[in-house]
Amino acid sequence: MPMRILIILLSLILPSYAAAGAALPGGYDRAGWGITVAELQKQVDIERAEMTDGFGYAEHLEADPDVYFRMTPNHERVEYYFYQARLYKVFIIYDRIYFHTRFYEDLVGEMKKNFGEPNEVYQEDFFGLPIQHTRWEDADSILDLRKGAGFIYQVRIDKAANQNKAKAGTKKKSI
Predict the structure, then answer these.
(1) d(CA 41, CA 35)
(2) How many helices (H) and strands (E) are present in the chain, helices listed first?
(3) Strand, helix or coil at 56?
(4) Could you read off the pLDDT of 41-82 as tens digits, one per residue?
(5) Residue 112 in 3-state DSSP?
(6) Using one digit for the tens of pLDDT, what is the confidence trace for 12-43?
(7) All residues at 6 or more sequence positions from 15 whose CB lies less than 8 Å from its CB, including other chains
């Protein structure tokens, strides 16, 4: 009888586990959440991003962010965002030659294969520009695939650090 109960429990648990997909990446490539700039510099060549550059950085709503970037051989711009000297967000911005619906749909399909169905699909209006979001979330990370404003990009976020940053920003506003 106990074996029968175990089989029933496994038949209930395993399908939902498989449908949920694998855990989201805890960072990007070998750069895990919480590493420092010095640790990242040992892995890849990066430069500090400044708004005076031709491009600056993608996250324009950040107030005085600590951002470093690199270009990949595939012409992707990878931006690393640090909060309290620790990596907490990564933008992967694809070359503009890939800005078309088929490329975005292929990326969504690949993400679904790896991580299951997205938690949320929506469109927002960002200063008059429509931005399409396909978003996955787990206990530790957010992966938001976006298309709009002439770009397709991934945003990967450390949830805990992002929440701490948001709380700190709220405290500053209330003081």
Answers:
(1) 10
(2) 4, 10
(3) coil
(4) 999 999 998 876 566 677 766 777 899 999 999 889 999 999
(5) helix
(6) 333 334 445 689 999 999 899 999 999 999 99
(7) none
Residue spans of the domains in the chain: they are 26-174
In the numeric block, which tokens belong to residue 132? 């399409």
Instruction: Please list the helix, strand and coil fractions of the chain in percent, rounded to the nearest 5, in that order.
Output: 35, 35, 30
Residue type (1 letter), 174? S
41: how many CB neighbours lie within 10 A of its CB? Answer: 12
Residue pair 140/112 in contact (Cβ under 8 Å)? The answer is no
**Rounded to whole angstroms, how far apart are CA atoms 31 and 25?**
10
What type of residue is 85? A
Alpha helices in the chain (DSSP H): 2-20, 37-43, 101-115, 159-174
- pTM greater than 0.85 (yes/no): no
